[in-house]
Amino acid sequence: MKRLMQWVARAFMAFDWPLLIILVLMAMLGMTVMHSAVGGTDWRFADQFRNFLLAFAVMWVVALIPPPQLMRLAPYVYIVGVALLVAVDLFGETSKGATRWLNLGFGRMQPSEISKIAVPMLLAWYFHRHQGKIRFLDFIVAGVLLLIPFALIVKQPDLGTAMLVFTAGFCVIYFGGLSFKLLAPAVVVGVLAVGTLVYYENQICQPDIDWVVLHDYQKHRVCTLLNPSSDPLGKGFHTIQSMIAIGSGGVYGKGYMQGTQSHLDFIPERTTDFIFAVFAEEFGLYGGISLLILYGLLILRGLTIAVRAHTQFGRLLAGSMAMMFFVYVFVNIGMVTGILPVVGVPLPFMSYGGTALLTLGIACGMLMSISHYRPVRR
């Protein structure tokens, strides 16, 4: 009995309570919005409730694993993740023009989700091993380790997931000591590229213009972002309807389950990528600000854990997880509000989907593990 009580006490000590409170609030809010989006308690609502329970269970298990053990697992998780991405390229199932899934017999899995965790884990392990003696060559090696899974995911194609993987990995490299002076040329090139797109929109968005580096559907997404009204009933339909829903919510919203755009089926993918449009229509500007505050607290807690971490591995991994949450939120809300192209990134703890929730649960579990870890002094 005494050992059981000690184990229970240790299990509850694994929680980072400020982070857990934020996650519980977000789960409750997510299930509330899902109930409205599906119009009741159908199979999607039940599945999402099950997904939340599984994500919290996995989070608890991961929180019990000390960071030194996570660090030892990092190379193996990365190798398995890359091997699965190669398997997708060779044997993957294709759906809606994308080859992203592996059939396991009893179900399907999307290996690219593993890379969201595996890549920052490996890079944090790499910089921890070279702590205090980092050379420029180490940044080159880290860049190659990042680009391998990134290229495999882009090839599927899955630009949204590739962007999240790249961001999580790049944050580790930057926090590891990469000078901002080296990034300045890339920032200048990016600004010039965006300016060129906007200025020459009418010429480069013509049907006979091939963008070479992008697929046709990716070109159409960018062109639709620049001018959604160019195809209001086709490629611009998602963006236009979501902006109408958000605008019609006004300051106070139309009320719970009173959204006309969502319940009359004007908002496509309203339970997944565009669930923020459902939320904003029913809860208005104040609701949207409250949700952003919750996300801000989540990201701030992640960065606080990173600052207080006792090891270089913990600092880098926690910082990258916090920034991954930020990119999730920024990209999803950006595409729903029409300031970014539609890339299929879910809204954390709100969008329907088991794989994404499981990834988020693992990320939060690692944050909790880093938060309560205290190295033994000898």
Summarize the structure.
With 378 residues, this protein is mainly α. 69% of the residues lie in helices and 3% in strands. It has 15 helices and three strands.
Write the layout of secondary structure elements.
Layout (H helix, E strand, L loop, with lengths): L1 H12 L3 H22 L4 H21 L3 H25 L1 E3 L2 E6 L4 E2 L2 H18 L6 H19 L4 H17 L8 H16 L1 H4 L11 H11 L10 H13 L10 H4 L11 H34 L3 H25 L17 H19 L6
Antiparallel strand pairs: 1-2, 2-3
Offer a few descriptive terms:
single chain; 378 residues; mainly alpha; 3-stranded antiparallel β-sheet
Write up what this structure looks like.
The protein has 378 residues and is an all-alpha fold. The chain has 15 helices and 3 strands. The chain has a 3-stranded antiparallel sheet, with helices on one face. Helix 2 (17-38) packs antiparallel against helix 13 (275-308) and helix 6 (136-154) packs antiparallel against helix 7 (159-175). The longest helix has 34 residues, at 275-308. It is globular, with a radius of gyration of 21 Å. 41% of the residues are buried. The mean pLDDT is 83.
